[in-house]
Design goal:
The complex is a heterodimer of chains A (about 700) and B (about 500). By secondary structure, chain A is an alpha+beta fold. Helices cover about 35% and strands about 15% of the residues of chain A. Chain A is globular and about 90 Å long. With about 500 residues, chain B is of the alpha/beta class. Chain B is globular, with a radius of gyration of 22 Å. Classes of the chains: A alpha+beta (about 700), B alpha/beta (about 500).
């Protein structure tokens, strides 16, 4: 699976200049030690980071090769590892392979989109941020040239050259900057032309299918076949549905994301489903070998040529000579279909390789292709596209400027935005709203539609904030722009929009803590939860893990069912054993009590007036001794925006996600370094992602614990 | 093949057909019987049967392999083991000093069930109940710590779990080494500490929550043409080529990587080996019970995508998963199954179970919420009343699964006599989270593997010792398991 080692002795990858990674500050190290929760049931917390934080590369193996020293100890790097594709990554990988093979010009059904322009305009539209195929008898005509009026004239409308004569008029789309119109076509073959300004007949530049018009020119043709209810351009590969069919990802405790490197294990259930999917996919390859793989299956060399097309895409790198020979032999013996099935169930397909090549000093640098995959899977949850593959082939990604440019390109792409949205939903835990339930008598407005919209609110708002929004983290914590939807607008007291829209929410809802999705995701089905809301701030926004209740804590004391939520939870603080931790949790949630379990403002709790005075203690780490009172999410957001811990925590979350691992004491230096760069960039969220992919822990690996043994 | 009656329908587990305790106990005195067709009609064909003999744990044991002589009279290994997990503990001894509502009183064979165990009264004489069985004190007695320790018997889940261990040892020749079924156990974002099966130290796996997918996997989506027909058709040469190619690929990779990612690739390779056995038809079924495995039916009506998260559908899904586990075992598809009901600190709204005594559409009572019932067992308090009802409901669901096992004849008894069913949860008392006095129950195995009808005083022994005993009862060569394990728990093995 690993590409053959280069013939030359290990050397620093060409063009690798020292990256502008800031030295970790002693402040950052101090913060990490503050994150230890003393006297609060936590065990085995991270130890303070290496104070110097400058463990230099120890290239003392006598090789004499000079390498750029790392600014953090090698232990701060993620280990060399194989990372099982998540279900989303698998789906995107298959989609990319088949789209590439099919040479599809447009985006693929199921791809993420911001508007129709991100989809295959002729066959798809963008619905709820996903490209959706038009019905099989519909076609969307476009014309990007200049004209005063454009109509479609054809066999289906009597060749009317103007709208008045029955021609189908296209409308000008300001957003996309072109003429377009979607129409229903009759079954079978239609022929047509475009007519500009009522007189100029031209062939449709977007449609390569022509036939002679009988007058010495050419007409465009379109074939409609809805008989088997399958789009003619569609592929059987879309029958593979990993999200529905593959096992749910396992996530280690304290790891919010679905891409854990350690927990990504291939159990028998996984393998059975992978093999079934591979069989389906291989069937498509065999059935459409001529079109997808570009050779006549009857030809002598077709299997070999097909594998040469397939393997680099499936493995996200060129196959080694050994692999190529083995797969060729397999195809020669058992047939191309078997070889394709093996390739599409192979470790090189199922895992992302992060093994790297030893620089000579015990630090392993990701290869060009590994780096391309790390970049694309981290930022788009999919494999490298053609441009990124080309950059990897050329060795260009070892240049930090080129790497940063690719990161920016991917972040702004539809797939990048979709992944930012998934990241946001997993980071903030709002994804759980997708299956949430509410007590109907208390929240009759909590419809399936509201639930679905709430489940996407935080992620989509975050994706906007990172890209077009250009927000900094403090702005995310205090800003008033939220993506609201028809069923969620009322939660903010806003008028109902016709479709999802970015809107200004009331000032007292400013900041992400005031988002309805965040407030709802941290509540129960029938009541708010000051504990959950407090823990959300402590663990998700401040990265302070609180331990389990100590054994002597005993049970929760008896409660008065008629009391307010706050009164019931305040009993935590009456018990000194509980208070040790809950003094740092509950008062945060108390400050959000004016918002109910679906994130709407409420005038009372259980018929009692609401006391929503809260306190944020020890914001820079338990034991730091600070405390600030606040009332409401906007005030809490302002407190957080003025603190340093949320920025370091945001860096830690992104770094953990990219590495697929829960951070530990050794990781502190890497987090501090990213934190410092993030701060230097004014805490711009986009800059955090760019700094992340330039960081040492993104590009280098350490030997695994097994190897070290 | 002759047609055999289908499994009992979900609506009415055949409680009335359960053997009487006296008969059941009597059977345990019979001399060990060889694994064989006896007078029963066999589901598998003769070829598969012969393979089964050769590959079964008993076959190996007879050859002097797995079964080291442990006592004077040979133990007859149980053929299957089923772990039935529910979340958030029980109403143990309260903080104000009331006695546990779960644990039994008495000693040895003279004991009374705790009130919450009342649904198990009919299995009392065929079960083992425990006092003072400990999971240790580490990790502050929390829910996550308990769930990690539960089947691994090791702090922080730093061990393979007992179900996974048994699946790759005594269960390795089965087409499905392990069936891990969940009920609302993988709702979005459920973290790994919530899942109790560990294929390798430190990493749990996720269960299959959808009985429709699990059924399709085991029996083929059409039913009858799927893998349930083991041995009826020769191995497909294409499939054989594919799996051989995959094994080749994996071996190349392992040779390249050496010790790197070894644990991960070991799990992957084990999966390949399991699929290889299935594809090449060399698995040993060892089934042959009186059920129709050629065209099995399972009532999946009413189960939709919404059922996988709507709390009102939970009982329906659990019934299907239990039936599926029993069906798979009866058809010889697996020897080891784990049913995970929800997850620890469960948000499952059990007050939405229509038809149960907990049902209250106007008030949401969650499992974890009820578990913090306060300091007293006060039936007039809403939380405690709900908690007691919920715990009894879990026990009744376990009993319904036992009913399924006990309704299928096997040799001169029932499937339950050859199956070990374990009821378990991750903490003792749900309110104070402690890990001492774990409320486990073991029913079945009465055909010679386990003692029956006893209250076992574990005297503070670690629960890994119980897993050792049950592992030995399954024929595994197991002497220690997990932390502070010292050997098989006394009073358990027959």
């Amino acid at each position: 699976m690993r590409p053959p080692l280069p013939a030359l002795a290990p050397a620093p990858p060409p063009g690798l200049a020292p990256l502008p990674v800031a030295r970790p500050s002693s402040l950052g190290s101090a913060l990490l030690s503050l994150a230890l929760i003393s006297g609060c049931g936590a065990k085995d917390g991270p130890a303070p980071a290496d104070e110097a934080g400058d463990g230099t590369a120890t290239g003392g193996d006598g090789s004499g090769v000079e390498v750029t020293p790392l600014s953090c100890d090698v232990a701060s790097l993620p280990p060399r590892q194989l990372r099982l594709l998540t279900r989303v990554e698998y789906a995107n990988t298959v989609e990319a392979i088949f789209s590439t093979l099919a040479g599809a010009a447009g985006a693929a059904t199921g791809a993420a989109c911001a508007d129709d322009g991100d989809c295959d305009l002729r066959h798809e539209s963008c619905e709820d941020d996903v490209c959706v195929a038009l019905p099989c008898d519909q076609y969307s005509f476009t014309y990007a040239g200049s004209a005063g009026a454009v109509v479609v004239a054809g066999s289906f409308n009597g060749w009317g050259a103007t709208a008045a004569a029955g021609g189908w008029p296209l409308g000008w789309d300001d957003d996309l900057g072109l003429w377009r119109g979607t129409f229903t076509l009759p079954e079978g073959r239609s022929s047509y032309k475009l007519v500009l300004d009522g007189s100029s007949w031209i062939t449709d530049p977007e449609n390569p299918a022509h036939e002679p018009d009988g007058y010495g020119g050419e007409n465009n043709v379109l074939d409609v076949d809805c008989s088997d209810d399958a789009p003619s351009s569609g592929g059987g590969w879309r029958d593979v549905d990993p999200l529905a069919d593959f096992p749910v990802e396992s996530r280690p405790q304290h790891y919010a994301f679905d891409n854990s490197a350690e927990a990504g294990l291939v159990t028998a259930t996984h393998l059975e489903r992978y093999m079934a999917a591979a069989a389906t996919l291989a069937d498509v390859l065999v059935d459409e070998q001529a079109t997808l793989l570009g050779c006549d299956p009857a030809g002598a060399d077709c299997a070999a040529a097909s594998l040469d097309r397939l393997l680099p895409l499936a493995f996200r790198r060129p196959p080694s000579a050994e692999e190529r020979a083995r797969y060729q032999a397999l195809a020669a013996g058992a047939g191309f279909a078997v070889a394709a099935r093996v390739a599409l169930s192979a470790p090189a397909f199922l895992y992302r390789s992060e093994l790297g090549i030893d620089r000579g000093d015990g630090v392993f640098a990701l290869t060009d292709h590994e780096l391309a995959s790390a970049l694309s899977y981290t930022l788009t949850a999919g494999p490298p596209d053609a441009a990124l593959r080309a950059a990897a082939e050329a060795g260009a990604l070892q240049d930090p400027a080129a790497l940063a440019a690719e990161a920016d390109r991917l972040l702004g792409s539809p797939a990048g935005r979709a992944q930012l949205a998934r990241y946001g939903d997993q980071w903030l835990g709002t994804e759980r709203l997708a299956t949430a339930t509410r007590q109907n008598t208390l929240y009759p407005g909590f419809s399936d539609e509201m639930r679905a919209e709430l489940a996407r609110e935080a992620g989509l708002t975050y994706a906007w904030a990172v890209t077009e929004g250009g927000l900094s983290l403090p702005a995310l914590l205090t800003g008033r722009t939220v993506r609201v939807s028809p069923n969620t607008a009322a939660l903010y007291g806003l008028p109902t929009p016709a479709a999802a829209v970015l809107a200004e929410v009331p000032a007292d809802r400013a900041g992400l803590v005031g988002w309805a999705s965040v407030l709802a995701a941290t509540a129960h089905s029938d009541q708010t939860s000051p504990v959950r809301r407090g823990l959300f701030v402590r663990t998700t926004l401040l990265c302070q893990e609180l331990g389990a209740p100590p054994p002597e804590a005993g049970g929760v004391p008896d409660v008065d069912p008629d009391a307010t939520t706050r009164e019931r939870f305040e009993q935590h603080s009456d018990d000194p054993v509980c208070a040790g931790c809950h003094q740092h949790i509950d008062p945060i949630g108390f400050g959000l009590e004016a918002y109910d379990a679906i994130g709407a403002w409420r005038p009372d709790d259980n018929g009692h007036p609401i006391d929503s005075s809260g306190a944020l203690t020890d914001v820079e780490g338990i034991g730091s001794g600070t405390s600030a009172d606040f009332d409401g999410p906007a005030a809490l957001g302002a407190l957080l925006a003025g603190a340093d811990a949320p920025a370091r925590c945001a860096a830690q979350s992104a770094l953990s996600y990219a590495a697929g691992r829960v951070p530990n004491a050794d990781t502190a230096c890497a987090i501090d370094a990213l934190h410092v760069t993030f701060a230097a960039e004014g805490h711009q969220l986009g800059a955090l992602w760019r700094a992340l992919v330039l960081s040492e822990s993104f590009r280098y690996r350490r030997p695994s614990a097994e190897e070290a043994r | 093949m002759t047609r055999r009656p289908p499994l009992p329908s979900p609506g009415g587990p055949p409680i009335g057909t359960a053997r009487t305790p006296a008969l059941a106990r009597g059977r345990s005195l019979r001399p060990p019987q060889p694994l064989g067709p006896g007078s029963r009609a066999w589901t598998l064909d003769r070829r598969a049967f012969l393979r089964g003999l050769g590959g079964s744990a008993l076959g190996l044991a007879a050859a002097g392999g797995l079964l080291a002589p442990r006592s004077a009279h040979a133990l007859v290994p149980a053929r299957r083991i089923l772990f039935f997990y529910f979340p958030d503990g029980v109403a143990g001894a309260s903080d104000s000093g009331e006695a546990s509502a779960w644990h039994c009183t008495g000693a040895g064979s003279g004991f009374n069930l705790g009130p919450l165990l009342s649904p198990l009264e009919r299995y009392k004489s065929r079960g083992l109940f425990f006092n003072n069985l400990s999971m240790g004190g580490t990790d502050a007695g929390s829910h996550p710590g308990g769930a990690k320790k539960l089947l691994t018997a090791a702090d922080y889940g730093n061990n393979e779990s007992i179900d996974q261990y048994l699946s790759r040892t005594v269960g390795a020749s089965s087409p499905w080494r392990h069936l891990y079924l969940g009920v609302h156990a993988t709702l979005s974002g459920a973290s790994g500490d919530k899942h109790i099966a560990y294929p390798t130290a430190g990493s749990s796996m996720t269960p299959e929550d959808d009985p429709r997918r699990a059924f399709a996997s085991l029996f083929g989506s059409g039913g009858g043409s799927g893998s349930g027909d083991l041995g009826e058709s020769p191995a497909d040469p294409t499939e054989v080529s594919v799996i051989d190619g995959m094994l080749d690929d994996m071996n190349q990779l392992r040779a390249q990587l050496g010790s790197l990612e070894q644990a991960k690739l070991d799990v992957h390779l084990a999966a390949l080996r399991e699929l290889e056995l299935r594809i090449k038809g060399t698995s040993s079924g060892g089934g042959g019970l009186d059920v129709d495995c050629g065209a099995p039916s399972l009532d999946l009506s009413g189960i939709s995508d919404a059922s996988l998260s709507d709390p009102g559908h939970f009982p329906r899904v659990l019934t299907a998963q239990s039936q599926l586990a029993v069906l798979a075992m009866a058809c010889g598809l697996t020897k080891v199954a784990t049913i995970q009901n929800s997850v620890h600190t469960s948000e499952l709204i059990m007050s939405r179970f229509e038809g149960s005594e907990m049902y209250d559409p106007s008030y949401d009572m969650r499992s974890h919420q009820a578990s913090h019932y306060g300091s007293r067992h006060d039936e007039s308090a809403r939380e405690y009343r709900a908690f007691a009802q919920q715990r009894r409901w879990w026990v009744s669901q376990f009993a319904a699964t036992l009913d399924l096992l006990d309704a299928i004849p096997e040799e001169s008894g029932t499937m339950l006599d050859h199956t070990i069913a374990v009821l378990c949860t991750e903490v003792c008392d749900g309110n104070n989270h402690l890990h001492d006095n774990m409320p486990f129950v073991v029913i079945g195995g009465g055909a010679g593997a386990l003692r029956q009808g006893r209250l076992v005083d574990a005297r503070g022994a670690r629960h890994g010792d119980l897993w050792v005993a049950l592992g030995q009862a399954m024929g595994a060569d197991l002497t220690r398991f997990g932390d502070a394990s010292s050997g098989p728990l006394g009073d358990v093995l027959a």
